[in-house]
Amino acid sequence: MPDTTAKTTIELRILRYCPSTDTEPAFGSFQVPYSDDMSVLQALQEIKATLDGSLAFRWSCRMAVCGSCGMMINGEPKLACNTFLRDLAPGPVTVEPLQNFPIERDLVVTVGDFVKKIESIYPYVMPKVPKTVEEGTYLQTPSQMEAYASFADCINCMLCYAACPQYGANPDFIGPGAMALLQRYSSDSRDGGQQARLDQIRGEDGVWSCTAVGICSEVCPKQVDPANAVNQNKSNSALDFFLSGLRKESVT
Amino acid sequence: MSVPKDSPLPKRTIAPLFWLLFGAGGMLSALFGPALILITGIMIPHGWGVPERLGSYDTVLAFARNPLGKLVLLALIALLFWHAAERLFLTLHDMRVGTVTVLRWLTYGVAFVLTIVTAVVLLMVGF
Amino acid sequence: MSERRPYLRPQPRTWWAHPPYRAYTIRELCGVALAVYGAILLAGLVCLARGPAAFESYRAFLASPLSLALHLLLLAAALWHMVTWFRILPKTMPKLVWHGKLVPQALMTQAATLLAVGCSVALLALVVVVGAWS
Lengths: 252, 127, 134
What we know:
The complex is a heterotrimer of chains A (252), B (127) and C (134).
Chain A (H helix, E strand, L loop, with lengths): L1 H7 E8 L9 E8 L6 H12 L18 E4 L2 E4 L13 E4 L6 E3 L2 E2 L2 H9 L21 H8 L9 H5 L1 H5 L6 H11 L7 H8 L13 H5 L6 H26 L1
Helix pairs in contact in A: 7-10, 8-10
Chain B lengths: L14 H32 L10 H9 L1 H28 L5 H25 L3
Helix pairs in contact in B: 1-3, 3-4
Chain C lengths: L21 H29 L1 H11 L2 H28 L4 E2 L2 E2 L2 H29 L1
Helix pairs in contact in C: 1-2, 1-3, 3-4
């Protein structure tokens, strides 16, 4: 009997934190029935359904589209729905909330700061000259769309922020995800908001906090390549830095 | 579409200036660094593949007195320092050795001083 | 309403020394090795300005086994700098579209590395030719 259970279960070590009772997070261990088609998310759901109903974690789509279930799995930022127990067997599997973010409860982290950063870079198309309805739609060729399409694939899962040591060192750093979204809009042929966005990232905590570690792109589950977005904007911000003197003269 | 103006714009940083010098030095040493180290540090001093007299006082003096030679030496040496200054600044900052201001003086400040020293020595060598 | 008391785990002070960040730190320190090479060149210039005797002792140092070992180390660092430099290069560039298709970043890295090897080889060849001709 013990032999068969050893083969059909896997141990999950989960970092638990309950704000009303715990002073600091601590690991709790769970034995979960194992099958090789099970994701880590399914294991967490199994725990919540049968072992401990108080376990808190975020999830929604179960198919790597919504970006809700980001967490540290064996020390790496991953989507729990997209990470399979068969790749982690025989375990134990360590599950922690996303690194670099404040923990609300168990595997749930605070996202308000990330949302503020996204808002700060004007995450929408800002046409140079807005068209009236009579003037028709904004047209775009397939190759113009190619220029930003991959940056539009971001699902706001924040794995890149959990991987970024500069965000870990300085929570005010705008970070890879927001920069990918910035690049998505600034490289859209219909957009005219490039200068407004450059003004938002020109500071010490803007694009210049990046040290090109490049790990944000490695952990991205959607191949958005935020490191490309950040470093392209270093070039853009540098150009803006050197042109700003000239621009001020022409304005005044 | 109106642009929300709820918070003041961030203050511009001087970092792009250092980044440009870092990039220039990095590109220069990525393209020619290995060959330069091989030539001046290994081949010429040991006479491997090239005659040793390429490193003689007269030859080097003639090179350093040539205006073009001066320019090459100044650009090369200064950019190597500025490149390393940026990288050392970032690494020391990662290691939390000191505040940003202190570390900037410690790295970019030294690169600046060494750039001046290189220029002065090149002038002292004469024309 | 349940209580809110977010807990922020501090970043370890030595994060830069451990995987996956160790490779990044080594890359940065290889860049610093280039400054050592710059300092060797500058020392040569200082000796040159001080006269033939000082410059001869500088040459004697360059011919020593210690200097050879140091330069081999610097060469290794410079080569690693070259490799890593062109790995990041595509990250700093806009997306390249060629005949309606995105150019893969690995291809950009390979092309740039090849160009760098060409530059270094051309410089070496130039010096060897000048040396033989002089």
